Fold this sequence. Notes:
Layout: H1 6-21, H2 25-33, H3 43-56, H4 59-66, E1 77-81, H5 91-99, E2 103-107, H6 115-126, E3 134-136, E4 145-149, H7 152-162, E5 167-170, E6 174-178, H8 185-196, E7 206-212, H9 218-223, H10 234-249, E8 255-256, E9 261-264, E10 274-280, H11 283-292, E11 297-301, E12 312-313, H12 332-337
Parallel strand pairs: 1-2, 1-4, 2-3, 4-5, 6-7, 6-11, 7-10, 9-10, 11-12
Antiparallel strand pairs: 8-9
Amino acid sequence: MSIFSKEDKIIAFSLLGDFLRTPNHAFKAIIDNAQNHNAWFTPTEVNKAVTALGNMLNKSDLIQWLSNHPENTNPQNVGLVLAGNLPLVGFHDVLCVLASGNKALIKLSSNDNQLLIAVLEQLFIIEPRFKPLVNIVFKLENFNAIIATGSNNTSRYFEHYFGQVPNIIRKARNTVAVLTGNETAQELHLLGNDIFSYFGLGCRNVSKLFVPEGYIFNFFFESIESFNLIINHHKYNNNYDYNKSIYLVNKVPHLDNGFLLLTQNNALCSPLAVMYYQTYVNIADLEQQINANLAKLQVVVSNTKLTTQVGVVNFGESQHPKLWDYADGVNTMEFLALLK
């Protein structure tokens, strides 16, 4: 058998990236049909996810990423419990396992059990030596380590069942945005992508705004008006109507632009079609508050320079992580390289 080098893997992953940026007719049909299995996976949102993954798998970033991580010289069977809230959300974990020289035992989410298989089949066409390293399973068995992603509730079950082996167990995380009141219409429009991409279902979707005291939301609403077609999606609209009725019945003060509800709340995680906001007096106090919630935050979106322990990205960038932007700030590649 020929040596499966790191350079071979870089070439294969970059070719997969090329394919995902310009998929063929057959793959486009898979994208178009995804909503028949999961109503949230509309062609627009799936295309968005596929393109983002394709952009992530560029040769330059792959070289930079893999040059910092040795391969595991004693390959292990790594069980992956994948989330399904967004299209292809679990691919990065599969990528890390394969890039690190380990074998992937994949337990797919029922919400996303077709797209990932289609992407892997294309990877196997590009580089057949990956195929023996991947096994799609209904039940995880004979694993040496686990990477599991779920909610705060499911994480307790994961810890119970998988606590005896090396593991990364991810809980729910949230993304917040910090506004100063000096943002341009273009910046706020970009923020709209961070809010509404994938209907707001991801941990990298902004679920809360921190705004200065006395902030007026008129300009914010004007700047995101072009996202109003989201209300035409029946599941999103159902959430909007439900939350609006709750606020009206309970007389909860809120703002409403016809497709997004804003209400003041100190919590980080807002319901779908709702954006929480909280005011701050100064940036220093806000930074302290953000750092106090380190375990609950995935990323902070802002064009303001902030000193935080949480990663900060510009408006419009929360859904475009780099290969080295690991979920929950845990370096997956280091974990995988050290397995024995």
